[in-house]
């Protein structure tokens, strides 16, 4: 097991709950007014999904040790994908939306590397 991925996954889950609640309550009117509610919810969902992916990767690494690159791809994906969407929602700087796909690609690469590591 890789504790780094287990802890990172747990942190992503914790932040997903905290940021989701913050968005649903404290930022509700702000997000609705800026038309960014769905964008914010997407950032939270993908943070959750990939938090679970990190925990899964950390657990699977005991049986399939070649999953390190997959785990780091998930971490990078969370930071860039969800991070850029949270920043976009908070600042309204639209160019941040151009960065988001880089995080999405990192997440896709993480899943591909997970498959590769398991099949190796």
Automatic annotation (TrEMBL):
Q: Name one GO cellular component term.
A: plasma membrane
Q: Which residues cross the membrane?
A: 44-60, 72-93, 99-119
UniProt keywords (A-Z) are: Membrane, Transmembrane, Transmembrane helix
The record, for InterPro entries, names: DUF423
Recorded topology in the membrane: Multi-pass membrane protein
Q: Does the keyword Cell membrane apply?
A: no
Pfam families assigned to the protein according to its UniProt record, in alphabetical order: DUF423
Q: What compartments host this protein?
A: Membrane
**Which PANTHER family does this UniProt record tie to the protein?**
TRANSMEMBRANE PROTEIN 256
Q: What family does this chain come from, according to its entry?
A: Belongs to the UPF0382 family.
The name this protein goes by in its record? DUF423 domain-containing protein
The scientific name of the source species is: Leadbetterella byssophila (strain DSM 17132 / JCM 16389 / KACC 11308 / NBRC 106382 / 4M15)
């Amino acid at each position: 097991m890789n504790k780094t991925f287990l802890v990172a996954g747990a942190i992503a889950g914790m932040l997903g709950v905290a940021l989701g609640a913050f968005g649903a309550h404290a930022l509700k009117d702000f997000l609705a007014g800026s038309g960014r509610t769905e964008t914010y919810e997407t950032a939270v969902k993908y943070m959750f999904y990939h938090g679970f992916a990190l925990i899964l990767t950390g657990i699977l690494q005991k049986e399939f040790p070649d999953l390190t690159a997959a785990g780091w791809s998930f971490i990078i994906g969370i930071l860039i994908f969800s991070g850029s969407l949270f920043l976009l929602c908070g600042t309204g700087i639209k160019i941040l939306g151009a960065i988001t796909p880089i995080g999405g690609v990192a997440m896709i690469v993480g899943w591909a590397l997970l498959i590769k590591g398991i099949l190796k």
